[in-house]
Amino acid sequence: MESHAEYWASRAALEWQVEMGADEAMLDAPVDRYAASADEAAPRAAAIPASPSRPAIPEPAPAIDAAAMARAAAARAETLDDLRQVISGFELCELKRGAKNTVFGDGNATARVMIVGEAPGRDEDIEGRPFVGRAGQLLDRMLEAIGLSRTSPDAQNAVYITNVSPWRPPSNRTPDAAEIAMLLPFVQRHIELADPDVIVMVGNTPCQALLGQTGITRLRGNWAQVLGKPALPMFHPAYLLRNPAAKREAWADLLALKARLKSLKKA
Hints:
Layout: H1 4-19, H2 38-47, H3 66-75, H4 80-88, H5 95-98, E1 106-107, E2 113-117, H6 122-127, H7 134-144, E3 159-163, H8 177-194, E4 198-202, H9 204-211, H10 216-219, E5 224-226, E6 229-234, H11 237-242, H12 247-266
Parallel strand pairs: 2-3, 2-4, 4-6
Antiparallel strand pairs: 1-3, 5-6
């Protein structure tokens, strides 16, 4: 039996080791764990459950450049009928999913004047023709005041009408910037194939698409160039229905259009 003094000496040594951080009892001699046999290691490895394999994360699908797809599709159109079919078969624009009809154009396709609006409304979506509601009826009266008509067989006195968007946006909202960029190649090809003498842009959306600018109150009445052709921004007739006082500026723009057509005819 160890003596009283040996007990206290052993206890003091143990307390010193605990204070130094020793918290686990070890063997009398070191063991080389790297030299352990495979038989000794196998039971320990089997006791550890293998981590379940994670399912492979699928690679994201490559983003589709809808504007580039529209540009390539539009370039294939050699005639207006071709373009109508190309647009009708284009499936990358969400606006098409909620529309009843693809509204392509109306009027005399050989006309000297091409009018580009914003998008179909309810009446246009039902009928499949642009500008047939109250705003369209006002537009017809405005054009008649300077001797133009969408029903005229004579290209000199006729107009041809289309929109930036061939599909009605939900709740008649304005097409957003991404939609305008996607549909722009179709509008540009439409202008190239119709080949008018003059382009009239009614409202902000066609100005944004064809001029890269908005602010129709500032832009209206100021001639610009679109695809090498003279282009005139004007108030949308729907705006004139809400703001009759602006008809004075609209009349001035119509007279400017009439004068430009006359000067081009002489040239």
